[in-house]
Design goal:
The protein has 175 residues and is α/β, with parallel strands linked by helices. 26% of the residues lie in helices and 21% in strands. It is built from four helices and nine strands.
Length: 175
């Protein structure tokens, strides 16, 4: 996104666009698929600051936070965008069911994959990151992801809270 300086007209009803600034929007093209959690607000705030461009909530078998105030989440994302000096605000898409998810090009952050990662170079070719729910994915969900050949993203040997896992996963894909 391009940024310009502007000035209000004397009547205050219009803006006069001036010159282009040197500011570069720190956003990137990362899409975060996530199961809504109790601290969804913290997750969205932190990964917005990292430059995530789009959020796709996914209702999984173990999703506990099913009644999220999405208008409030939009306000949090706007504030995080302003705080991190972004010119853009990430889009929050309507929630989808896990069964309806397209796994093409998605990497999944989950402790099950901590020691199974084989193809680390392909991680850097994706812009889609999926963070699971509190309590992890169900066995049926793992079977579905395995059938699609989903790549696991190793977040380390410790179990992270869901909101922290989102930040670490996005950071790993960015680097």
């Amino acid at each position: 996104m391009i940024e310009y300086t502007a000035e209000r007209t004397t009547d205050g009803k219009s803006l006069i666009v001036k010159e282009k600034t040197n500011h570069t929007d720190p956003s990137n093209n990362i899409v975060l698929f996530f199961a809504p959690i109790k601290k969804t607000d913290e997750l969205l705030n932190m990964v917005t600051q990292l430059g995530v461009c789009e959020f796709q909530p996914v209702i999984t078998d173990r999703t506990v936070a099913r009644h999220i105030n999405w208008q409030r989440m939009q306000k949090i994302v706007i504030e995080a965008s302003e705080q991190s000096y972004r010119n853009s605000v990430p889009k929050i898409l309507p929630p989808i069911k896990f069964a309806d998810m397209n796994f093409s090009g998605v990497v999944v952050a989950d402790e099950r994959f901590a020691h199974e990662q084989k193809d680390t170079k392909s991680l850097y070719k994706t812009n889609k990151v999926f963070v699971g729910p509190e309590g992890g994915f169900s066995p049926e969900e793992f079977k579905k992801m395995d059938s699609f050949g989903v790549i696991g993203l190793d977040l380390g040997k410790t179990i992270l809270r869901a909101e922290v896992a989102g930040v670490v996963a996005v950071s790993k894909v960015l680097n």
